[in-house]
Amino acid sequence: MSVTPLPLPPQTRHVDRHGYLFGQKIAASMSPLFHKTIYQALGLPWEQVLLDSADIPQFLELIKDPKFYGASVTMPNKVAIMPFLDELTPECCDVGACNTIYLRENAEGKRIYCGTNTDVIGIRESFYRNIADPDAVFHDKPAMVIGGGGAARSAVYALSKWMRATQIYFVNRDREEVEAVIAECKARGYGHQLVHVETVSQAEAVEAPGAIVACVPDFPPKTADEVRARATIEAILQKERKGAMLEMCYNPNPYTELGGIAEREGWNVILGTEAMIWQGLEQDKYWTGIEVKDLPLKEVSEVIAAKLSQASKL
């Protein structure tokens, strides 16, 4: 019986230290460019390299390298990697997903592999860095999450823990996904204000949200459930009071159909690249030991803006 060979690990000999972006379908990711920009500005001969894989045993061997400094973790590995790490931050445990691995040493000098979730920071900072008056826009008001995956869980955490949401509406094409998220968040102690809004009539009856986090791919609705979910979202967006929407989808284009609808309805739309910047800076804080305020925000913002200029706005 033939055996499919494991993918060769990426070459890392050309740098003093290296990290990984560990996941699949990552060829177009901006993450390596983002972190390379930071390291160049800091004068660090470091690099984040792509590891397009879901092979956790191979990954666990690669990160034993003394030159390894940490990793970004993306789908499908965010949950699967957690049991293999030595320590998890409260955010990582509560969200139930790890997007960042960083290192520390214990008293005996042994390397400890730690997991955290910086997506929650990216969501939080996207709103606070772009909305001048949070009290007027989203504090002490309902919020809404669109979707039902890992990013949706991060959004619930940020809205509940930090953004003072009074309720969180969930809109998604898949009822079972929503029920699973609500059950998990309640079990972890922060999901008791979640409300599944399934229909236009329900949407019309609820108070307008102040913050919306959209966590779905940029595909036009086709199935009956997708059409129903889109109509429900539009009923929310058409309410008289407007707020801010973070569109988490930015690949391949940050200017999504849903973001365009929200903008036309008068909402302040925050691009998903904002969340990428702030969660990435938080990652580099863990990896370099340098506080976010001292990292080269200007340089990375310019690099991302240059990338955005290449994208066409719908």
Automatic annotation (TrEMBL):
<dbReference type="GO" id="GO:0009423">
    <property type="term" value="P:chorismate biosynthetic process"/>
</dbReference>
<dbReference type="InterPro" id="IPR046346">
    <property type="entry name" value="Aminoacid_DH-like_N_sf"/>
</dbReference>
<dbReference type="GO" id="GO:0004764">
    <property type="term" value="F:shikimate 3-dehydrogenase (NADP+) activity"/>
</dbReference>
<dbReference type="GO" id="GO:0019632">
    <property type="term" value="P:shikimate metabolic process"/>
</dbReference>
<dbReference type="Pfam" id="PF08501">
    <property type="entry name" value="Shikimate_dh_N"/>
</dbReference>
<protein>
    <submittedName>
        <fullName>Quinate dehydrogenase</fullName>
    </submittedName>
</protein>
<dbReference type="InterPro" id="IPR036291">
    <property type="entry name" value="NAD(P)-bd_dom_sf"/>
</dbReference>
<dbReference type="InterPro" id="IPR013708">
    <property type="entry name" value="Shikimate_DH-bd_N"/>
</dbReference>
<feature type="domain" description="Shikimate dehydrogenase substrate binding N-terminal">
    <location>
        <begin position="21"/>
        <end position="101"/>
    </location>
</feature>
<dbReference type="InterPro" id="IPR022893">
    <property type="entry name" value="Shikimate_DH_fam"/>
</dbReference>
